[in-house]
Write a structure and sequence with these properties.
single chain, 445 residues, alpha+beta, three-stranded antiparallel β-sheet
């Protein structure tokens, strides 16, 4: 392990608060030369300098935020002061709600917010259940055949079917699913794309064209009145807005549709895949969840949701959240100057031993037993916090729980191999295939 890095000596500024301690650039260069990935570099920064620390990822220092109180301030208490400048997936999602800023973001967020809370969520219960039943039927066939399946692809298929039903009112057909594999290809390519916008777009032009074609067909069908067997969906909400509000151009409707597709299945598919990989190493956690109560009982549901929550602790949907300071502030006792870039990192907050004892251990009881998780509001933030927290939080938790209630009691998995590690892009996903054989549990399939 590298030796303790000394903060770069900088005199206190006029406010009286000291500057954020910074890892020496030479130390960072040495880490890079040793092959450290971004997550490794940020981990070392946190270990050496604490929950608010600076590191030069470019010409100017970037402030890493893992302290829960500081994360809460940046994301929830001062969101107007710490703003989102852009999104790494903008070439894919355009001006959709994830990438939008300012007044445009407020209007787009307001339109979609009601669809994911209370009455809005109840509209999608039937669609979530139908997608879960379809996956359970497919797993029954896989178990009968004995043919191996890729668990990651299975989870992606379920999550994509769920969001497609919610968007269009139609179950996902095989042709559309094949075309939408391009979404995953673009997301996986993001970290390695050329720096310039034109070069990046050219590198994934074929995949973007496939995604645009699917979006165009869905929009045209919705405009022609094709609401689907489950009735109108989120796409119809967007088209209704386009009929009343000039800012909802054809391009913005496309951008919101693709944004909801990306956000609505990439994160859920990854979470469910990680969960099955974790249960492979910790079968006792599955047994405890199923023993918590009978099928459909509140106790069983709470225990299954705890499996999901603990998976999200280890592999949060958004592992880093970039922000930029638009005014001077004091954060964690340190001076933050206007123009400073920050990275709030839920991934590292969730692995802080001062907050989570034995943080690398998978233990869903943290979410069912009092006193086993931090009381600090910023100590658990897998979907972010504040006004820009993930719109689909309740949707994602509900679909994951419903699927697991179908699959966990009915099938055991034997993985043929497991990924060696994780790939860090806009999400944290298993870095490799996840082939497994399914076996029906006697009397439960």
């Amino acid at each position: 392990m590298a030796t303790q890095a000394s903060p770069v000596p900088v005199p206190p500024n006029a406010s009286g608060a000291p500057p954020v301690p910074e890892v020496e650039p030479a130390v960072v260069e040495r880490w890079r030369s040793e092959g450290a990935e971004l997550v490794d570099l940020l981990t070392q920064v946190r270990e050496r300098l604490g929950g608010v620390a600076a590191v030069r990822l470019g010409p100017a220092p970037t402030v890493l935020v893992t302290d829960p109180a500081a994360a809460l301030r940046v994301l929830a208490q001062r969101p107007e002061q710490y703003v989102k400048r852009s999104h790494r997936a903008r070439l894919l999602i355009g001006d959709g709600v994830l990438a939008a800023t300012g007044e445009a973001w407020k209007q787009q967020r307001r339109l979609l917010q009601a669809q994911f809370t209370g009455t809005g969520m109840r509209r999608y219960e039937q669609r979530i259940e139908a997608a879960a039943r379809r996956t359970a039927e497919r797993w029954a066939a896989h178990a009968r055949s004995g043919q191996p399946v890729d668990v990651g692809l299975e989870m992606r298929s379920f999550a994509l079917d769920t969001i497609w039903r919610s968007l269009t009112g139609h179950p996902l057909d095989a042709g559309t699913e094949d075309e939408l594999a391009a979404v995953g290809s673009v997301v996986a390519a993001l970290p390695t794309l050329p720096a310039g916008a034109a070069g990046a777009r050219e590198a994934v032009a074929a995949d973007l064209a496939r995604i645009d074609a699917v979006a165009a067909r869905a929009i045209e069908a919705a405009r022609d009145g094709s609401a689907g067997p489950d009735g109108p969906g989120l796409l119809h909400v967007l088209l209704d807005a386009a009929g009343e509000r000039p800012e909802y151009t054809d391009r913005l409707v496309r951008d919101e549709l693709v944004t909801l597709l990306v956000a609505g299945h990439e994160t859920t598919a990854g979470t469910l895949t990680w969960l099955y990989l974790l249960l492979d190493r910790h079968p006792e956690a599955r047994a405890r969840a199923l023993a918590a109560g009978g099928a459909g009982s509140p106790e069983r549901r709470e225990a299954v949701q705890a499996l999901v929550s603990e998976t999200l602790r280890l592999y949060p949907s958004a592992w880093v959240l970039p922000r930029s300071a638009v005014a001077d502030d004091v954060l964690g006792g340190y001076r933050i100057e206007a123009g400073t870039d920050l990275l709030v990192c839920p991934y590292l907050t969730h692995r802080d031993p001062a907050l989570w004892p034995e943080p690398e251990r998978f233990d869903p009881r943290r979410f069912t037993t009092a006193g086993l998780r931090p009381a600090a509001p910023g100590g658990y933030l897998p979907f972010g916090l504040g006004p820009r927290a993930c719109l689909g939080l309740q949707f994602a938790l509900r679909e994951s729980t419903v699927l697991l209630e179908h699959l966990l009691p009915a099938y055991s998995l034997a993985f043929h191999s497991v990924p060696a590690g994780a790939a860090y892009s806009i999400t944290v996903r298993p870095d490799g295939p996840t082939p497994a054989t399914l076996t029906a549990v006697a009397g439960r399939s």
